[in-house]
């Protein structure tokens, strides 16, 4: 019996479909076609579609503050390394910072790094971010609150530990009466530092609250307090610029009080070098910004969680004194310490 020849392929035959199937298979293998879905992470999908990861850093830092410029510089360095788009916004007011975080959520960022100087104000926007599927990590402030607020990770210094270390150091230096200057009322990190000093320092510790947004007012307030009580022999500042203001205040008050501080910048490093400031406690703000952004990138691209999500990653404290300041100077000159 003769076998009939096959009919020419029609538009619906398997032969015409095969090239389409092969092309689709190649598309899946190369993950280059738009609209392709898989069981991978959101970051994988973003990478397949050619979109860059968008991250936001929202802090309570005052504008123009050298400390927060270091945090921002570290964050930008990590963003450049990881190839992500980073936006930075700050507001020292709790309600204002919360609103900035809501703006980031509305912008549909892929991750947010936030400070918790005022944890209660940030609870609602953090919850909103989580509800939107946006991971949030903490840095700098809120080491006692980050887990209860619901953050994924935390990078910073245990301020109570740092304060206690300063109290011990003051005892070693023979100080008797310390004035701890707090430049932002309600900031839990600053309060914890001074409370830590008071806990371990065997001398007298008193707090002085000043308006950190007005440096002239800060200098005047410290000057007045030193004039009122000549027994004060140590001023503890909570920021490099406030320590330098305290040096001026001691001179104006004709006080013999020494000055030490938490945090440092380029000018403060020079002050430690020449002896006008006794020491600084460095929590490495550049590192905090860098690690926070890099952690979000690692989480989005590889599911990594530093500290297992249960322990903070500590960036300090480290004492900078006249004996080791030379080791820090070159980094401070480069603007990273």
From TrEMBL:
<dbReference type="InterPro" id="IPR028082">
    <property type="entry name" value="Peripla_BP_I"/>
</dbReference>
<dbReference type="InterPro" id="IPR025997">
    <property type="entry name" value="SBP_2_dom"/>
</dbReference>
<dbReference type="Pfam" id="PF13407">
    <property type="entry name" value="Peripla_BP_4"/>
</dbReference>
<comment type="similarity">
    <text>Belongs to the bacterial solute-binding protein 2 family.</text>
</comment>
<protein>
    <submittedName>
        <fullName>Substrate-binding domain-containing protein</fullName>
    </submittedName>
</protein>
<feature type="domain" description="Periplasmic binding protein">
    <location>
        <begin position="62"/>
        <end position="299"/>
    </location>
</feature>
<dbReference type="InterPro" id="IPR050555">
    <property type="entry name" value="Bact_Solute-Bind_Prot2"/>
</dbReference>
